[in-house]
């Protein structure tokens, strides 16, 4: 597993907000956000925008709950945000997440995806000890990790973690 090096210089990892339970016969992929999830997605997007966290590129899983979460970020950040939907993020490995990040030329990239892969990507980027210190209960729904590359130590550092 290769840890990406800049660019990007900032990575945002956003786990989708809370999904509604599957209806009878409904595929997991097609689950929308719950009522709470819609509210949480708007809150986390607004908190990020208020802090000046604005990715140049947002890459989202095509699963409905991720698209719903990405839509909230797009509304909060504005129309200039480049949004792409990638099938490979659904049910992906951590290697896939990191390869997608590494392939980008943008300065700041946001991934909207799923656990446990989101948590594994964060752990790979910042290390196990730093992740456990920051998230002792794991990566919550609608949680946003803000990770910068520290050139002085040639490593990724978690600079903020936003929750609802």
Assembly of the depicted chains: single chain
CATH topology: Rossmann fold
- Broad CATH class: Alpha Beta
For the sheet with most strands, the description reads: 6 strands, mixed
Radius of gyration: 15 Å
What order do the helices and strands follow? Answer: EHEHEHEHHEE
Counted beta strands: 6
Total number of helical segments?
Answer: 5
Q: Stretches where pLDDT falls below 50 for ≥5 residues?
A: none
Q: What is the distance, rounded to the nearest whole angstrom, between the alpha carbons of the first and last residues?
A: 31 Å
Count of structural domains: 1
The strand order across the widest sheet is 3-2-4-1-5-6
Mean pLDDT: 95
Q: Per DSSP, what share of the residues sits in E-state strands of 2 or more residues?
A: 15-25%
Proportion in helices: 25-40%
- Give the helix/strand class: alpha/beta
Q: Tell me the name of the CATH homologous superfamily.
A: Phosphoglycerate mutase-like
Q: How would you sum up the global shape?
A: globular
* Secondary-structure arrangement, i.e. CATH architecture: 3-Layer(aba) Sandwich
Can you give a write-up of this model?
- The chain has 164 residues and is α/β, with parallel strands linked by helices.
- It has one domain (10-20, 41-162): Phosphoglycerate mutase-like (Rossmann fold, 3-Layer(aba) Sandwich), CATH 3.40.50.
- It is 34% helix and 23% strand.
- The protein contains five helices and six strands; from the N terminus they run βαβαβαβααββ.
- The protein has helices at 35-50, 64-77, 94-102, 117-126, 128-134, and strands at 10-15, 57-61, 82-86, 108-113, 144-150, 155-162.
- A six-stranded mixed β-sheet has the order 3-2-4-1-5-6, with helices on both faces.
- Strand 5 and strand 6 (155-162) form a beta hairpin.
- The mean pLDDT is 95.
- It holds the Pfam family His_Phos_1.
């Amino acid at each position: 597993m290769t840890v990406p090096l800049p660019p990007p210089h900032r990575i945002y990892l956003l786990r989708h907000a809370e999904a509604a339970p599957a209806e009878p016969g409904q595929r997991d992929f097609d689950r929308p956000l719950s009522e709470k999830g819609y509210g949480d997605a708007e809150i986390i997007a607004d908190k990020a925008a208020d802090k000046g966290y604005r990715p140049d590129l947002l890459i989202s899983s095509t699963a409905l709950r991720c698209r719903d979460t990405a839509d909230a970020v797009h509304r909060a950040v504005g129309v200039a945000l480049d949004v792409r939907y990638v099938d490979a993020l659904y049910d992906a490995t951590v290697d896939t997440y990191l390869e997608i990040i590494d392939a980008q030329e943008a300065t700041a990239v946001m991934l909207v995806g799923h656990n446990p892969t989101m948590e594994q990507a964060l752990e790979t980027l910042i290390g196990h000890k730093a992740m456990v210190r920051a998230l002792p209960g794991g990566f919550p729904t609608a949680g946003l990790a803000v990770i910068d590359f520290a050139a002085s130590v040639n490593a990724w550092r978690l600079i903020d973690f936003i929750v609802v």
